Amino acid sequence: MAITLYHWEPNANSGKPMLALMEKGVVFDSHYLDLLNFDQHSPDYLKINPNGTIPALVHDDRVLTESTAIMEYIDEAFPGPSLSPDNPEERWRMRWWMRFFDQYFAPALSMIGWSVFVGPSVRTRDPETLKAAIERIPLKERRIAWSKAIYNTFSEEELEESRRRVAVGTACLEQILGERRWVAGPTYSLADINGFNLGYALPLAQPALCNDKETPHIMAWLRAIYARPATKKTWAMGRTQMASRVKFLEG
Ligand SMILES: N[C@@H](CCC(=O)N[C@@H](CS)C(=O)NCC(=O)O)C(=O)O
Hints:
Bound molecules: glutathione
Order of helices and strands: EHEHEEHHHHHHHHHH
Number of helices: 12
Strand order of the largest sheet: 2-1-3-4
Radius of gyration: 18 Å
Number of strands: 4
Mean pLDDT: 97
Largest sheet: 4 strands, mixed
């Protein structure tokens, strides 16, 4: 059985299937793509995923994309501890929260991340090389995101709306983690994996919003997930300072 995961740092979408595979104890070949080097738009990778986005999982002759759907596939296709509750209500909650993370919270955090991190990380490179790199991006929406990040043209209005959504998302998460141990109920699930990938660095990126005083339940939840052996192993696969930031959750 051949299992290859194409991914970037354990973070956001890439980290979701990485952590799900680790939790299940599935051995996989890791194929690291450097997003800041545009590896995801290389001809070799476009043969795997013509959209030029990561992650992608190749299981035998099957190519799977979309990080949340990949996590659900991993949970069902491989042996190991179940990462979805048996109870229908808790399973609904798991899916409700994953949809909220993916559709509301993640795009807002991502816009801020692309504005303050991705753009500044690449924009000092040769302008012609960057222009050619943008032109090679297959999806128009990704071309727009890269262009705004590189040329610093996110509008103040859209950034403000993203900041508002991050504040709303953080408050909702704090509230439900005050009511139950894990996002979907009494058992650790894919929703926690999804949320951790999205939010592990929230206390660093948004210190006024997310900290021990304002959001004690989120902080305890992040520390509990980071204490899991699978999380430690996954973040040890990171190659950059982006992933090593997770260490602030130690102790
Ligand atoms: N909805 C997709 C989104 C995939 C996606 O856009 N991933 C980002 C990285 S987190 C990406 O590949 N960006 C590359 C690019 O824009 O060039 C998923 O969840 O897998």
